[in-house]
DNA sequence: TATGAATGAGCATTCATTCAT
DNA sequence: GATGAATGAATGCTCATTCAT
């Protein structure tokens, strides 16, 4: 029996169950049972239920923060924008379960403190992709691009086809949208 | 105290609260209290909690069904497709709170019977918009078009601008995506 | 649709359901639903739930009362005792569902006013069968005789064999017990 | 306040109340209140309400199982049969409250899983007492013997006399029945 | 003879959380 | 680094009953 990694195991199981059933419908009893520990053990590692998902959010969104930080140091050329999308799309792979969770538990997100954190990140990304004086429809294009990247992977889960192919198809559609927005605002 | 409209009032308040706090976190006690009736009164009008939202779904999605029915009788020209989008966008207006609810409670939707009903409707719409032999990226374009129409209205709620203008902007973006898909599949 | 017999129909369905599921677990809603009337209709015919079963008890135990009344006018010979058993066994046939109900809902009976009524009847029967100075084991024989007649029919339901044959077999065993008691007390 | 015996105390109080008022009419609130714990504490020790009485059944019927096991190893002589009755009668003493409960809540028993367990035990006992080719009336004698032993103790509670004397009187009547059945089948 | 609408009290069950050990 | 035992608050739901119509 592995030692000292209980905290990690709790996170894994929690994300799995939150994803399957939603945050509200997943009880600490379930998490504890699947791990074969007692509920009280969870409380040794995390102060509250919300604490568990906050910790997940912080751990899993670091790669995305890095994309944003990198983007901020770059000029607003089309090439950079597309590179941001590409990196973002890759960063999303590891965080898929978390995004699936966030996507599917938005009502819950709003009351949890991480809801705000996520919104800020989203706006930061849009700011990198759009130009300062973009028309509304172009801002919507950028939004839609990001949005479909977040949602795409699991919404399209029941569409036939190879996952990696789907990801690049989604990326292609997102690219198109950003290219369009870029051109419109420079026209 | 008004008579005979209790059922309707329950639906109204329920949709409001489900939208604000999510389905799981909204208790029947809350709904009853806001209506100043007892919980048992809710059970006179609806057999279960799930029954309440099923009834909402059925009542509010009728206009969309009509769009789909109409679309099925039409030829698959680009003009028809754009007309479908336009009508669908309009049909969505009245159902906004419901879609907001569904968008934000996807984890819950999966266990509720209306989850399936919704998926079917979505597929029916995509079938009207895409051509039989479309490439994956074009099917994704159609999906994304619909998806952003559903989600757009409330996701963009905190973006400044007139709601009606937003709606037409979203429609414009959706149009572009469908036009693109249409052209690709005929090329 | 028959008229004016709703009261009777309520009694029939109630006894059926009380027998199937027990008194506590049978709700007025169920009775009403099976009759295709509203709960409120039941309250037009009976003041309370308990009232329904009291009325059943009164209607169905009349034949037994008649046996007891007859027995009281007779001398305490063995022949009379056996005739009492025979008549009682026959009287039980029509009341089988009621006895099944009472047998299976004794805990409930104790709180319902008919519990007492039944006990009195039982003692009256034992008094007819035993002699004034019987030994305890002979009183128990009489008790057991009656008891097995009450319980026998449904307890033995899952034993193979013809129902009428079972009834006469039970009666035979009861006869033996009473004969034995009679002889002991005269020995 | 005593520790570590809460489970036992719950069982004791539950059996007492189930016996007094019936299973359905006894609420967990009542049990908890009488024990001066919260309802939730009951759920720490038992998964459901039914679980409480299952545990009681299992704990209290062990002595009877032992009688049956012993009986199976013995030849089917009359002496053995009477010894089985004697041991069974003794085993019943400790289980009196449980049998009282089962006797008085038969309607409930039918839906609870222990209903079946009990039926099997009853059949196993009859098989030990009757001979393979017994006539129906002899099988009924065996049944009646057992039945009156189960029911006798509490049904006769309001009959005057010493409890231990009652028990042996009942046993005597049961003996007679089994002797009779034994002789008939060997005649 | 009924019904439609509602109530008040209650029930079994679940949950996040606490704390002494 | 964990457990055993418990709590307080809540939840969805059901029930017998009432009463104006």
TrEMBL record, chains A, B, C, D:
Residue span(s) of domain HTH tetR-type: 4-64
Keyword Repeat included in the entry's annotation: no
Record organism: Streptomyces mauvecolor
InterPro entries: DNA-bd_HTH_TetR-type_CS (IPR023772), Homeodomain-like_sf (IPR009057), HTH-type_TetR-like_transc_reg (IPR050109), HTH_TetR (IPR001647)
SUPFAM superfamilies associated with the record: Homeodomain-like
Species lineage: Bacteria, Bacillati, Actinomycetota, Actinomycetes, Kitasatosporales
Record keyword Transcription regulation present: yes
Taxonomy, superkingdom: Bacteria
Signal peptide bounds: none
Membrane spanning residue stretches: none
Designated name of the protein: TetR/AcrR family transcriptional regulator
DNA-binding region of this protein: 27-46
Keywords: DNA-binding, Transcription, Transcription regulation
């Amino acid at each position: 029996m592995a030692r000292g990694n209980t905290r990690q195991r709790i996170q894994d199981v929690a994300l799995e169950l939150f994803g399957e059933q939603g945050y509200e419908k997943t009880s600490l009893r379930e998490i504890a049972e699947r791990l074969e520990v007692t509920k009280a053990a969870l409380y040794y590692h995390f102060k509250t239920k919300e604490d568990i998902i906050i910790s997940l959010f912080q751990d899993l969104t670091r790669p995305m923060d890095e994309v944003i930080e990198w983007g901020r140091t770059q000029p607003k050329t089309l090439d950079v924008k597309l590179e941001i999308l590409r990196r973002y799309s890759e960063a999303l792979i590891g965080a898929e379960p978390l995004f699936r969770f966030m996507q599917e538990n938005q009502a819950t997100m709003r009351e949890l403190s991480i809801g705000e954190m996520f919104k800020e990140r989203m706006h930061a990304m849009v700011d990198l992709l759009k130009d300062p004086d973009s028309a509304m429809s172009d801002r919507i294009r950028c939004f839609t691009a990001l949005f479909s990247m977040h949602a795409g992977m699991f919404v399209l889960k029941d569409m036939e086809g190879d996952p990696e192919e789907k990801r690049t198809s989604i990326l292609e559609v997102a690219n198109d949208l950003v290219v369009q927005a870029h051109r419109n605002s420079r026209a």
